[in-house]
Amino acid sequence: MLLQLLFNAAKFSAARTAIRVTAAFTDNGSPRVSVADTGIGMTTREIELAVRPFSQIDGGLARHYEGLGLGLSIVRKLIERHRGCLTIASVPQKGTIVSLDFPPSALKLAESLPRFELSDIAVEERIRSNSVAMTAFHATRTQ
């Protein structure tokens, strides 16, 4: 889910602009992960389209952005399967913040899983398509 949000942020932002990832807790104790960009942004109507399967905001034959229109709809379904919530706040020409709110029970599950430390993450920036792809990483079990 997080990778899809990062890909979207890179895809709809100018090359070499910052994308911010934050993790925090909501007022009710739910874990929240957010991805913020300074990209093209969306209107309320465009957000409604973006979360529907096979929907494209720019649906013409000469559209600027590639894709099937499945990314956000899949993320939404996955977070709902985790009993969480996808929220999108956006302003056209200013940027977008997409948040994944997990239920507080997700913390109990996470505490029971083995711990890993990621290192040597290699990120390849594709300037022409303005997308970012993780090409390799090394995980070491810490527990």
What does this structure look like?
The protein has a four-stranded antiparallel sheet. Strands 5-6 form a two-stranded antiparallel sheet. It starts with a helix and ends with a strand. The chain is an alpha+beta fold. The protein has four helices and six strands. Strand 5 (about 115-125) and strand 6 form a beta hairpin. It has a single domain, classed as Heat Shock Protein 90 (2-Layer Sandwich), CATH 3.30.565.10.
CATH topology: Heat Shock Protein 90
* CATH C-level label: Alpha Beta
Number of H- or I-type helical stretches: 4
Q: Shape from CA axes?
A: globular
Order of strands, main sheet, comes to: 1-2-4-3
| Count of the separate structural domains | 1
The CATH homologous superfamily: Histidine kinase-like ATPase, C-terminal domain
Radius of gyration: 16 Å
Query: Uncertain runs with pLDDT below 50, 5 residues or more?
Result: 59-63, 120-143
Overall pLDDT level: 76
> SSE order, as H and E?
HEEHHEEHEE
Number of strands: 6
Q: Classify the oligomer.
A: single chain
Q: Which structural class fits the helix and strand makeup? A: alpha+beta
> Describe the biggest sheet?
4 strands, antiparallel
Percent helix: 25-40%
How far apart, in Å, are the first and last alpha carbons? 25 Å
